[in-house]
Write a structure and sequence with these properties.
12 helices; Rossmann fold; about 350 residues; about 35% helix; 8-stranded mixed β-sheet
């Protein structure tokens, strides 16, 4: 089996490569990026690649890969071009797209993917991704119908690196966010609907409405009446930093957002922004009072599901078309993945989920 990983020299992309190489059937991984490669194993080759270039589809086609995994962000800029290139090259596709607007654009390629007989799974990281599969597991397991779903994620500055992560964070925390309320898609201002949460391995923090894709896809595939997604950061003062960026108008304008992200990233590299953080991230899903969660390093939480999905897609276990993870997989996809720890809420608090 041969996989290509776009954005593979970044934090998440390098994690995808690491997890792919743990599968015995994965014989070759090609690293595609505009930056030079890190130290790589013998089964990894590097090729300079710009996903926005006019010949991106030709490059993918010439590689003759079984599946392309896109980990290049931010996805509101790079997600749709990567998917389009994969479809033109007729290569199966997986990504970890976590921007709501990019997800809508990618889902619009469904007919083209079906006509090309290409399977594509978008948003198969931790949120969306693991979060979608946790929700599916509870909803399909029975209970009130239609269900009410709440997704709460918490990330830590000590657990992430890369400019794209900061750009995504500022993007998702500004403007209107799509939520699904009382059977209807509605726009809610980012930062509204605040609440306090406690998540395994991360602890307590405040979360608020943000622009992730779960409210877009879950109502299509699950019997739900509402889907709300909130996000937050640890340490808690980072939430105030993001709010200040939003109020200043920096987060709402693409060019300023990019410049601000690079400035914050350079600060983060000094270690100043990681003070008080933990090297863990987590996402919890509550469905009518039943709560499940996943925790671990953000790199593993995102990369391991994408790698597992890529292997299944390459083995033709997923039909043609563009689909979110809840349409293609069950929670079994992530139950035994290295670095992804699943929890359920018991009488004494969070406990490891029973296999």
């Amino acid at each position: 089996m041969h996989a290509a990983v776009v954005g593979a020299t970044g934090d998440i992309g390098s994690g995808v490569v690491e997890h792919l190489l743990r599968y015995p059937e994965m014989e070759q991984v090609t690293v595609l990026d505009v930056r030079g490669p890190r130290d790589a194993e013998a089964s990894v080759t590097y090729q300079n690649f710009d996903v926005t270039a006019d010949d991106a589809d030709e490059v993918l086609g010439d590689l003759d890969v079984d599946v392309t995994v896109n980990a290049a962000g931010p996805f509101y800029r790079l997600g749709p071009p990567a998917l389009e290139a994969a479809l033109e090259a007729r290569t199966a596709y997986v990504d970890v797209c976590d921007d709501h607007d990019a997800t809508r654009e990618e889902l619009a390629f469904d007919e083209q993917a079906r006509e090309a007989d290409v399977p594509a799974v978008v948003g198969c990281g931790w949120t969306p991704g693991v979060s979608n599969l946790l929700a599916k597991d509870v909803v399909d397991g029975g209970g009130p119908e239609p269900a009410e779903v709440e997704v709460d994620w918490v990330g830590s500055a000590a657990d992430a690196s890369g400019v794209a992560v900061v750009e995504h964070l500022l993007h998702t925390a500004s403007g209107d966010t799509p939520q699904y309320l009382d059977g209807e898609h509605r726009d809610v201002s980012a930062g509204d609907m605040k609440k306090d949460v406690e998540l395994p391995e991360v602890g307590d923090t405040r979360v608020a409405a943000c622009g992730h894709p779960e409210p877009i896809t879950l109502p299509t595939y699950l019997d739900v009446d509402s889907v709300v997604v909130r996000g937050g950061l640890v340490p808690g003062w980072h939430n105030k930093l993001v709010s200040a960026a939003v109020r200043s108008g920096v987060a709402g304008r693409t060019l300023l957002r990019s410049r601000a992200s690079r400035l914050l990233h350079s600060l983060d590299r000094t270690g100043a922004l990681s003070i008080g953080g933990v090297e863990r991230s987590a996402v919890a899903v509550e469905v009518d009072g039943t709560r499940l969660a996943a925790a671990g390093r953000m790199k593993d939480l995102t990369a391991a599901p994408a790698a597992a999905a890529a292997v299944r897609v390459a083995e033709s276990e997923v039909p043609a078309g563009v689909q979110p993870p809840e349409a293609a997989f069950t929670l079994d996809l992530v139950r035994d993945l290295d670095g992804v720890r699943l929890y359920e809420d018991g009488a004494a608090g969070w406990k490891p989920m029973e296999r």
